[in-house]
Design goal:
Layout (H helix, E strand, L loop, with lengths): L1 E5 L19 E6 L3 E2 L2 E2 L1 E7 L5 E11 L15 E2 L6 E5 L2 H7 L5 H7 L8 H5 L4 H7 L5 H12 L8 E7 L8 E7 L9 E5 L6 H13 L7 E9 L6 E3 L7 E6 L20 E6 L11 H17 L1 H16 L9 H9 L12 H16 L3 H16 L4 E6 L7 H18 L2 E5 L3 H4 L7 E7 L2 E5 L10 H8 L8 H11 L4 H7 L6 H14 L5
Parallel strand pairs: 1-2, 11-17, 11-18, 14-15, 14-16, 16-17
Antiparallel strand pairs: 1-7, 2-5, 3-4, 5-6, 6-8, 9-10, 9-12, 12-13, 18-19
Helix pairs in contact: 1-5, 7-8, 7-10, 7-11, 8-11, 8-12, 9-10, 11-12, 15-17
Amino acid sequence: MKFYVIKPGESGPAVFHGFGKRAKNFVFLKAIRWNDYSFYTTFDMTIFDSDANQVHVGKVRIGYQGQEPGEALFDRIPREFTTLGDEYFSLGFSHEYYESVTQYSMYIDLLSGLKDIALDVTLIDKFKDEDVLNLSLLRDVSATTVRNEYSRVIRRLPVLTDFKFGFQCVGAYEESTYNLDFEVVKNSVPPSNIHAVIGKNGVGKTTLFNRMVEAALEVGTLGSGHFYETDRKSLFGEQYTGLEAGYFSRVLSISFSAFDTYNHPEDNDQPAKGPCYSYLGLVDSSNGRLKSHEEIYLEFASSLAVVFSDSYALNDWHDTISQLTETNNFNGLIFSEFIAAYDRCGGFDAYHHAENWEFDRQFKLELQPLLESLSSGHFIVLRIIVELLRRVETKTLVLIDEPETHLHPPLLSALVRIVSKILHNRNGVAITATHSPVVLQEIPKSCVWKIYREGISFRVSRPSIETYGENIGTLTEEVFALDIDKSGFIKDLELMVGDGVTFDEIIKKYNGQLGTEARFIVKSLISNRGETQK
């Protein structure tokens, strides 16, 4: 790609020798005699694209290392170049500039040639002490915006937004109704795009999710539950204003329980009919039967074909797989074989397009030996990842019921982090119902709700301790409120202590196979009994 610089007062392209009327893939930078705190950095950009169409893009600022106030960059920058030297750096004026640039097929070459700091954010740190960067290029925008917004436009990711919404689960009685508020703060540390709902079995977590599905697909209707805006109360007491129609672009329900009896709505991929909906699980929601391995593999092949047929989703696949392999949870699995299987089926043929059932069946046959070599946990993780890459778009609500099913702790932890990253890339939010402290380790307490039930009465609260990065034992005891005096082994120990057995005799009885917690409990029980123990 060739760049040409036009100085103030010059008429335009005609000043360059040999420039033809049908030139293609050229960029003209017309210098503007305007200064930002005495720095002359501004250029107006026009592109002649691959069809020789003239497209006005907008303004860009260019600076260089060591630039002094009063220096006119247009007197220093080369009149013609393909790539600026390493001492240069540039930044577009606005979000719209990058939206315009990315419409051009060779936009990466263009931004790279200009040493754009939104394309390569490491340049911000490299030149952070340069006055021209701070006073001119970053005059109207922060480095945070460049990193988190402009760079997302370049990668064709949706601009991140905050989420603020709540859900009211309506019961038959006033004391059976409760509210849950959810907030996602973009780019928060730790991430806030995954929320968790915890509570004992039978408290109604799965029912809550089913009501969320029904409410999200018919936003604004009352009944067993409805979503609302947390920062906009209605005129009627404490009621909140319902979410506007279309607040969620899609709802994705994920449940790998073989006992999922919920009659899921029919999958919908037509936005004109309302929020799109997809269900991922083991049960055929149309008749309640368990899907066969063949059906599950075919669904996986179909979704993976859609991901591989989209260049951006394919890039996300590579990033996600790289993250998975770093965790050592998929040691020995060669992910390139998935790409090879797709290629053998002609998937990269220009004439192939996604959602071709004949192709999907052939792709499934190629994938089946790979899939059959996986454990159920590894396959479920891949299944969830692929479905997220296929389905999640901006403002997608993902509901995950007990993700710990079939997964050992390290794999579960890796999955939570990957889901969060995909949601960050796509501007989505997830709510998970869980019994796992491993999940809570990855989520701050501001994103966790605990539901309590006593008869017909419900109440909700946040955990009493911070959950993100907390010790598993502490989470199990404090957050999940493990009632140890009702646990099976406690009853056995109580019976022995009640029979007058000493501490040493109990240890001997168990052949020394008592953990630290059990030994502590034995000592406490004996102490309460009034006996002396070693």
